[in-house]
Amino acid sequence: MSRLYMKAAAIGLVAALAGCATLEPDAVRLDAGHQSSIGQHLQSGPQDFGMNTVNVAATWRRGRWVAEVSEGYAVQGIDACVHCSSRDVFEAHVGYELWQR
Known about the structure:
Elements: H1 2-17, E1 27-35, H2 38-41, E2 51-62, E3 65-74, E4 88-96
Antiparallel strand pairs: 1-2, 2-3, 3-4
């Protein structure tokens, strides 16, 4: 249960840093992704490291500042090990866009 409180606190902190007057995000999306090192795909060794995820992400934008939090599920486990660790994946990002059209 304390993990849930930590996630809620992280979301609140990111929203506050982004200047959000409310916690209502500017966008919510469902996405699928893959995370790994590009080097593993260029070598002849094992290539089953990384993770494939399905996520729900919320994004807040204030000018060029962007804050994003996502909660996801590692579909095949992490590093192809289904039973080694939690399959729950939480990410938080805060960034500044250097260039826009």
